[in-house]
Every structure is written in structure tokens, then in C-alpha cells.
Amino acid sequence: MSRFLNVLLVEDDPITIMVCDRIIKLSDFAEKVVSCENGKTAMDHIHKLVAEGGKFPEIIFLDINMPVMNGWDFLEEFEAIKDKISPMPRIFILSSTVDPEDYKRAKSFTAVDNFISKPLSKEFLENIS
Amino acid sequence: MQPEPTTIDTKNEPYATAGGRSLQLKDACMLVGLDKKIIEVNSGYHQFHTLYNAHLPHPGQVITESTFKNFPAEFSSKLSSVLSGEAESTILQIQDTKQPLNLYQVRILPLAADENNTRCVGVFIFEMEKSTLTSFQHSSPEIFRVLLQNSTDVYQLADAGLIIHFTSAAVENMLGFPTHHYLGKTLLEGIHPDDRDKVKDWLISIRSVQEKLVTLEYRVKNKDDKWVWIENNGRNMLHHPEVRSIVMNFRNIQSKKIADDALVQAEQRLSLLLNNTEESFIILNSRLRILTYNKAAQVHSPFFFNQELQSGMSVLDLIDKEEVDDYIKIFEVVFTGKEVEKETIFIGGKNEKFVFNHTYRPLFDGTNDINGVFITSTNITDRKKLTEELAANSSRLETAQQIARLGYFEFNYHNKSFFCSPQFYAILGLEEKTYDWSDFSFIYNIVHQDDKDMVRTQLEATLNSGVDLNMEFRVHEKSKTDKVVLAIGGLVRDNENKTLEFRVTIQDITASKMAILAIQTLESKFRSLFENSIDGVILSHMNGDIISGNPSVCRMLGYQPEELMKLHRSDLLELESDLVIDMMEQRQKNGSYMGELFIRHKEGYYVPVEITSMIMNDGEGKRYFSTIIRDITEKKKIEIEQKALTEELMKNNQDLQQFSFITSHNLRAPVANLMSLLSLYDKQNPGDDFNLVLIDKFAEATNQLNQTLTDLVNVLVIKSNNHIEREQVSLSTVFTEVNKNIENLLAEKGGTITSDFSAVDEVLYNRIHIESIFLNMISNAIRYSSPNRIPSINIRSHKLPGWVQVDFKDNGLGMDLKRYGDRLFGLYQRFHDNKEGKGLGLYMTRSQVLAMGGKIEVESEPNVGTTFKVYFKT
């Protein structure tokens, strides 16, 4: 029995998507993983859920460096419409960045729960309750 | 003054007391009412009336203008003004027109009212007494002629043109000329030039008024060509039917005039003398009362200090009580007939002392009795002061010698005597005793060894040849430092060149000599500092005029020293600049200023300098600016270079840090993937399907890592290559080359590229970089072209000062620069959902542009297109 029903993975690298999807499944973290290749498609997905009254993901793993709309752009748009979203998903930034500015910036968004350094591990998923 | 109106009783003899004068039979009277109606008229009036007018007035007749026709105009006008009340009362004299010498006095008076309450005016006419001349004329012309002939006065008649036609015989006696001498001449002839104008005026005034006697004193020439004073009485009788002349009557007043003048002059001289002399006098009578005194006696009050003199006053009242006895004694002596002299001292305000010498002399009357005292005074204040000063001077001289440390020596050739002041001994450090003066060996003994010959030579030159003595020598004293002595002197000779005296003054000038020496040393030290200083030094007046500058500042600013001296601060400084204004203010406020400025070089450019400027007082109260100037051109240059270097370093540092963050991120990403893939690999079942997928992905991730490494190495090559080779590169050639590589890509999209390098084609650049920039720019333009438009790309060069600008313009997708602008040129930044883009191209382009000192700018609009502007430094 998985701990969460629905996880959204916003990530442009297909290998990372595949790996994450596999780890999530193997560790019984979530039953369903939806992935979007950049911030733009992720926002489109959320808008669609809002419009159709679909179930919002409980957890969002968000990469930063993506084309079209990167992680920061996504967070800005997401925060703008968060009144329409309930229950609020917990957002984890998933990045291999080493720039301290990125950590600082991540904390400035209230929607961000935590910062995960790649690769995503089973141990980390087990700590999310 | 107004006469009392007279009451008239018309019933009785009416005019008994009119005007207070007894009437004669011929006296005439007329009463006229205020209504101008004639009340009464007597026969006398009728007689008078007929003189002018045959129509006689009668009582009851109203007077009109025609009533007094042919009367003198005055008569009727005065009458009507009294009648109308305008005039109170009037008296006039009128003439008989037929007998001009007959005069009548007319009185017109307002009269009190009678019982009928009628107010009236009375007209009374009195016949005036006739002149003597008239009597003669009437009685006997012969008597008149004889009288004329024998009179000492001269009678002269002239016509209206002032031409003389009669002169009486007395003239010959008076002036020496016969009577006919004057005939036909004008009255203005023979008159003293100084009097001529006044005579002319006098004659004109005579001629203009009838009958009026006018007198003038003036000078005329006599036969001996001497001027004679005459008093001339003129009367205009031109209208007189029988005279028809201007009548002149003059007499000689020469002696009277001389006597008068002498008297006036004597009086003037005396009063001038008495009142202008500084010598004061007072005359007293025998009872010591003041008879008279002169102005000086009053003004200078030399007798009785600050007391006002008055005739009749007793001098004893002017004297202090304590002094009265002394004065009485003096006067007692004077009244015995002797003169007394007395010195009196007054102390004025401001404690000024006045000394007077008073002389008291007896005054003798005609019988040789003493009837008064004559006191004169002389101010001897200055003389007294001089005497006192003279006395004081001799003692002062002695004091002065001591103060000035001046010694005096004198040898008198006449009586072979010597005189030495005490200071003379003191200065030379000699005992005060008699020395052997025949030679000066005692002097040579004390003179410094090195100065002995000089002193000897100089003394001999003076004594033998009379050369003025002026020498400085050192005196050697036991256990003391040497003294420096200045000796000045010479021989005194009489008119026959005979030597009378040898005089010398000596002065101890050790202190001033030392001071001068010290100043000279100090000055030379300063001078060498000034001349040899590396720093510039400028001395200037408070008004900015430069006094001098040292060689260093001349070199610094390109001027010759003499050129610099003619300059003003405005030639060197930009006086309006904030820096200079601040400098002047601070220096004025604090007395000094330290800071950096720019000074204009002779060539016109500005030298950056560090200055220390201060206000300096010289010993005489004058103020100057002393300014030390250091050229900081090199320092400035280094500062600027350092600043630029630091900025560049900071930028590079940031850039590198960013680069390191990004590279590590991009290296970590595939590594993380590999680690994850590895963790998912099922070692127990190597042949598992998923394991096969993992191995595929493993290979993919490894390639990804390899590609990333390759890219980063390429970037590093660009970034680290500091010595990039440059060559003349033709933009059109580069374009052609690059075009070949993208022909296929372009053909796929069906777009066109146009170029225009007519403005500028050649740049000095690295060919590889330029080709890479062109390739990136063009391929980006094609890659991000709009699916809705046929791609159209335009490349064009421009020439700018210092730059060659190349624009790459497309009509592609465009970008929202507000959103992406800040990271457009960032490493691994991608903006389009396009798998080909790795986010490396623009980063590479920018790095290549920057590496050559250029810059890159972008303009873009979503769905319209993008223009990149690349600037190549020339």
C-alpha cells in the first residue's frame, strides 16, 4: 500500500524521469506518478485539474533548470493561483545545483517544503511523512 | 502812517486847517462826495484847474474822466483810488505845464462825515516855493549870468545826445581847459577809464527821469593829464521849454577825496595792524580799568587766561586773589615811569602749557604825566619749550648711547685732549683709565688676530688721508666669545681744511651679526630645499599673483621660472570647478588645505596633483600662500588601472563562480542519473528486462556526461585563452563561409538571408571566434524561426566611433525579454521547448565577444522577431 496516491514530477531529463518514477514505485511512495517536461506543461496540467475539478497531486518534485519555464517560473505562477488549489501539494525541489543562491531562493517560496539534492533516494522518500 | 481824518465845517470858513498847513489865498480846495459828486469847489481851485483845463467844475457835477482832461494822469487816478477807498490818503506834486518850474503839492484826504452823514474826500492844492533859478530867470537873467561866470562850480549843458553845448567859465580854473574845449564833445569824454561805466549808467538814469537831481563822484582829466575827482550833479531838463538841456553842475572834490581816502586807509591799516598782529595789547587808564584792547588780546587771552575782556573793566577783577599783590607791585613800578617785564605761565585744557612774556609800559599824556598802562604780550611757549628740550637732550644723548650700546671717542687736535664715553670702554672690554693715545696699540691688542691688519690699515687711512672710517672688527676677550664691533667716524675739518677733531662711534653688533648669520644659514637651507625639492613649491600673493616657483614645479607645468612669475592662479587652476572652490574655501577657513587638484600644464592639459597649501605670514605682517605640489599622474594612472583591474577581476571571479556552479550542476546531473541507474540494477537477475533498459539508459547517461564535459572544455578554452590572435577579417568572407554550413538547415525551413557589409567590412579580430559568432547567431535565428512565417534573416554592419556593430535581425519566435532577459546569455539556459538547444550557444557567443573586449545586446518581441547587436572593438 503506497503512502501517497498522486505525485507530480516536473523534470525535463527523461532518464531522471524514468529513474525517479522507478524509485517512487519501488519504495511504495506513491501509486501514481505524473511527469511534466517543464514548468509550462506542469502549470498547464494544474490549470486543467483546477478546471476539471481533478485531484491535485499530494507531492510535487520540481527541477529548477528546464527550458521554456524553469522551476522558479513555475513556483511564481503556482503561488499566484494557490488559492484555487486544495489541498495544497507539498513541493520538493529536486536539483543537482550547488549554488547557495538557489537554496536561499527556494526558501523564499512558502509553497516549497524542502530541497532535495539529486539523486532522489529511497531513504529520502522514507523520511517524507 | 495814516493822518487823522479832518472834520470840516462847510458853513464857516471851511479850509482853515487842512493838512495842518495854513492856507494862502491862492490855495485851492475841492470837496467830492463818495458818490463822485462835487460838493464844494473854491476859486483857488478854479485857478488851478484852468492851468490844465478850461472847463471849470461846479458843485453838484459828477466827476468823469473828461473833468480832469489834460491833467497829469496821476491826479485823477489818485483821486479815484482815494474815493473808492483803495488808498487812504495821498500827497503828490504836479507841475504847471506852461511854467515847468512851478510846482504844486496836491493832498487828497478822506474827510469825516458831516451832520448829513455825507462822507467826502478833500482835494487841497498848495503852491510850492519856487527855486532860486526860477526866481532869477524871472527877475534878472543878467544876475544869473554873472553868478554863473563867477561861481567856482562849473555849469554844463548838454543835449539829449549828451553833446555839450555850454560850459561855464569856471571850468578853466578847475581843469585848465577853456570853455570852448568842451563844445560839441560828449559828456563821456575825458573820464577815468575805471569810472566810465558808472558815469554812463549815471547819465542814462538822468536822461530817463525828468527833473530828478542825481549826483556822482568820478575822475576827469585836467589839462596836465592828471585825474581830478569831481562831484557832479545832473538834472534832466530837456523838457523845459527854455532850458531844453541836461544840466550839469560839478565841483572839484580832489582834496576832500584824498583826505577821505587817506583817513579811511589809515583807519583800515591801523585796525588791520592791531587786529591781525599776533602781538596782543591792552591799554589801561590810571585807575587800571581797560580802555581798549586788540583782537589778539581777546582771542589768545595772553594776559588773563580764558577771561573775557571788556572796556571799562578793572584788571584787578581778572586776576586771581593770590596774584593781586604781585600785580599791584608791578603797577606801582610802572607808575614810577619804568617798564616791567614778567613771564606768565598758563595751563590750558589737555594740560598744554603756554608761556607768555608780558611788558608793562607807562603811558604819558601831553604834560608828561602817567595816565595809563600799555601792556603787550609775546608768546614764548615754543622758545621756552626749545630751551627746555635742549637742556634735556644732552642727558638724553647719554642715555641713548647706553641704550644703543654706542661708544664715543673724540680727539681734539687743537688742545690735544681726548674724550671717551663710558660705553666706549665697556664695548671694547677696556678698563676706564688713561691709555697711551699716541698710537693705538692698546686697541690692536684687543682686536682679533685676523682683523689686526685690517684695523691698522683703516685707521691709518683715516688719520693720514682723511678717509671716512667704517669698519667691522672682532674683539677678543678672555674667556668670552668674540664680539663684533662696528666703528664709524672720520676727521672734522674747518673751512681751511685744517683738522680739528677725530671722532669715532663704536657699536657692539655681535647680536645682530649673529642673527644675520643665522638667517643667512636658514635661508640658504631653505633655498636649497626649495631649489632641489622633488615636490613643486609655489609662493603666491593673497590675490593669486604668483611670486615664484621652484625648478620642480616649472618642470611639472612646462614653464620657465620667469614665465611662472608672471602668472596668476587663474592661469593654473579651473577656478569655477568644485574642487578648486572647495580648496579656496577650506584654505581661507582653516589657513591650510591638503588634497588633490588638477593644475593646467602650459600645453593646456591638466596634471593631477596632490597639494598642501597654507597661508604664511612673513615677519612684516604680509600674508602669502605657500603651496607644495606633487605630481600624481603616475599614481592616478596606477589607481585607475588598479580600479579597472579590480573590477575585471571581480567580474571574472563572479563569472567563474557562476561557471563553476553551473558546470558542477551539469556534471552532477548525469552522475546522479548514473548513480540512480546503478542503484536500480538487479545484480541477482542480470538478464531481467528492466536491467536491459537500465543498461541502455546507462549508456545514454554516460554519453550525456561525455557531451557535457566536451562542451565545458570548449567553453573553458574560450574563457582561458587570453592571448587570442587577431587578424584582419572580412565580415563578408566569414558570412559566405558560415552560409555553406547552414545551407541545408536553411533550405529545410525555406528561409532567406540577406547581408550588407557596405558600411564596414573589415575588423581586426580572431577569425575562429567571428565564424563561431556568425554560425551561432544565424543557426539560432533559423532554429527559433516562427512556424507561421518564412524565416527572413538580415545581417548588417555599422561603423560607430570605437566600434564595429553587426546586427543579426530575424523574424522568428522572439522572446519576452522581461522574463528571460537576465539569463538569456547564461550557461545552460534554454527558453524554447526544443530538444536541440542545450543552452550553450548564446553563452559561448557572449564569451567569445567578451574575450575580444566587445559586447552583445539584444532586442526582441515575442512573435515578431529578435535582433542581436554584436559590438566588435576596433
Keywords for this entry:
heterodimer; A: 129 residues; alpha/beta; 5 helices; 5 strands; B: 874 residues; alpha+beta; five-stranded antiparallel β-sheet; 24 helices; 32 strands; disordered N terminus
Question: Could you write a compact summary of the structure shown?
Answer:
The complex is a heterodimer of chains A (129) and B (874). With 129 residues, chain A is an alpha/beta fold.
| Alpha-carbon distance between the two ends of chain A | 14 Å
**Total helix count of chain B?**
24
Strand order of the largest sheet of chain B: 2-1-5-4-3
Poorly predicted regions of chain B = 1-23, 130-139
Number of strands of chain A: 5
Largest sheet of chain B: 5 strands, antiparallel
Which outline of chain A best applies? globular
Report the end-to-end length of chain B measured between terminal Cα atoms.
121 Å
Oligomeric organization of the protein chains: heterodimer
Class computed from helices, strands and strand pairing of chain A: alpha/beta
Low-confidence stretches of chain A: none
**Which chains have the largest interface?**
A-B, 26 and 29 residues
Q: What would you report as the Rg of chain A, rounded to the nearest angstrom? A: 14 Å
Please state the average pLDDT score of chain B: 81
Provide an overview of this structure:
The complex is a heterodimer of chains A (129) and B (874). With 129 residues, chain A is of the alpha/beta class. Helices cover 41% and strands 23% of the residues of chain A. In chain A, strands 2-1-3-4-5 form a 5-stranded parallel sheet, sandwiched between helices. In chain A, α2 packs parallel to α3. The longest helix of chain A has 14 residues. The mean pLDDT of chain A is 89. Chain B has 874 residues and is α+β, with helices and mostly antiparallel strands. Chain B contains 24 helices and 32 strands. In chain B, strands 2-1-5-4-3 form a 5-stranded antiparallel sheet. In chain B, strands 7-6-10-9-8 form a 5-stranded antiparallel sheet, sandwiched between helices. In chain B, α19 runs antiparallel to α20, α21 runs parallel beside α22 and α22 runs antiparallel to α24. The longest helix of chain B is centred in the last third of the chain and has 48 residues. The N terminus of chain B is likely disordered. Classes of the chains: A alpha/beta (129), B alpha+beta (874). At the A-B interface, α1 of A face α19 and α20 of B.
